[in-house]
Amino acid sequence: MAELIVMVCLLATPEKCQEFRVPDAGAGDVVTCIRAAAVKSDEWQEVNDKYFIIGWRCATNSKAPLAPSAQ
């Protein structure tokens, strides 16, 4: 299973960036993940406005932590 990984930075401390796995944005394969990645990353960004996305990728077996949810 391929997972959407986003590189995000906190708005308050933009020099501190980290990769996270986006929950519920996985796909059966990397190609399908890539096709949906822009929409899924935008959806996550809309509800997590403390962060800004500087990049994304799709990967299998990622060790990235699960992305924080909006609080």
How would you portray this structure in words?
The chain is an alpha+beta fold and 71 residues long. It has one domain (2-60). Helices cover 25% and strands 34% of the residues. The protein has one helix at 30-47, and strands at residues 2-10, 17-21, 51-60. The protein has a three-stranded antiparallel β-sheet with strand order 2-1-3. The mean pLDDT is 91.
Summarize, please.
By secondary structure, this protein is α+β, with helices and mostly antiparallel strands. It has one helix at residues 30-47; strands at 2-10, 17-21, 51-60. The mean pLDDT is 91.
Span between termini: 28 Å
Strand order of the largest sheet: 2-1-3
General form: globular
Number of DSSP E strands: 3
Largest sheet: 3 strands, antiparallel
Considering the chains and any ligands shown, give keywords for the structure.
single chain; 71 residues; alpha+beta; 3-stranded antiparallel β-sheet
Element layout with pairings:
Layout: E1 2-10, E2 17-21, H1 30-47, E3 51-60
Antiparallel strand pairs: 1-2, 1-3
